[in-house]
Amino acid sequence: MSFAVVVFEKREDGERAIDALNGYEAGGRCGNRRLVVSHFPKSTRFFSLQEMLFIRRRKTTKEQQEVKACSTSFWRDPGATFCSVCGEDKENHLELKCPYNYLSPATYSPCKVRLALWGNYTTTLRYKCARHKEEEQREPPVHDEANSRRLGFMRCFVRVNNLPEQCHPEELAALFSRFGPLRMWHVATGRSGACKGFGGLVFQKRDHADEAIEALNCHAFGDRKLRVDWAYPCLNC
């Protein structure tokens, strides 16, 4: 919500401003908006209550639609007590703030993902680079229960590319849920609510995710053909 505070020397001046400006159309970078002008809330006591005005702008219908569109592009199992992407306890974070969720660039941490995927306890010697092979030969692999749980969840994370701009997330979720129950689905959208062309789903079981990838890769969805693969292919080699 956008707002501002104006302080007058006299109460009478403030009242005249309220009468004149309440409902006034003000232009800006986001287009014209109607101002809502009133006395500052009585619960706040920064200055004299008689001298302050509280000014805020109503959200336009377009902005309300954008908020609604963004809120329907993500779903998670309401009964889950952990992050569906990495299995961490929900008190630490949830999916949209998960450092292992590449669909959330604000919190995504590639360094943490690389450490989880390419640490000396995550992959077999066959798939390691020369430096990691040498490290593993010097030191025995470290067993990390927390990371093993994390990788178990990330093996069920499926990415979907080439989604149409007018993608309906519920239809995409219904398409994939035929293969097994989902923990989460997320379609990346812009401020206008239009799909950015990619999304992700997390299955409860890896086998169901594997079946969905085999069946739906190159599947016609809207006016596009989907590109479906593992979010972290190296974990499913």
From TrEMBL:
One of its GO terms (molecular function) is RNA binding. InterPro entries: Nucleotide-bd_a/b_plait_sf, RBD_domain_sf, RRM_dom. Keywords: RNA-binding. The keyword RNA-binding applies. Residues 156-233 form the RRM domain. The keyword Chaperone does not apply. It comes from the Eukaryota. This is RRM domain-containing protein. It comes from Eleusine coracana subsp. coracana.
